[in-house]
Amino acid sequence: MPSNNSGGPWGGGGGNRGSGNDGGGGRRPPGGGGQPPIPELDEIVRRGQERLRVLMGGKGGGSTNGRGPSGAGGGGIGRGGVMLILIAAAGLWVFSSFYRVDTSEQSVELFLGKYYQTGQEGLNFAPWPVVTKEILSVTRENTEDIGVGAGLRAEQGLMLTGDENIVDIDFQVVWNISDAQRYLFNLAEPRDTIRAVSESVMREIVGRSLLSPILNRDRGVIAQELQNLIQATLDSYNSGVNIVRVNFDKADPPREVIDAFREVQAAEQTRDTLEKQADAYSNTVVAQARGESARLLQQAEGYRAQVVNQAQGEASRFVSVFEEYAKAPDVTRKRLYIETLERVLGNVDKVIIDEGAGGGQGVVPYLPLNELRKSGSQSDAATSEGAR
Amino acid sequence: MKKSALILPVLVVLGAIGLSSVYIVDERETALRLWFGEVTAEIKEPGLYFKVPVIHEIVKYDDRILPMDTEPSEVTPLDDRRLVVDAFARWRIADAKQFRRAVGASGIPGASARLDRILIAQLRQVLGSVTSDAVLSADRVGLMTRIRDGARSEATNLGVEIIDVRIKRADLPEQNLAATFDRMRAEREREAADEIARGNEAAQRVRAAADRTVVETVSEAQKQSDIIRGEADAQRNAIFAEAFGRDPEFFAFYRSLTAYEKSLQGGNTSLVISPDSEFFEYLKSDKVK
Question: Which pTM does this prediction carry?
Answer without folding.
Answer: 0.64
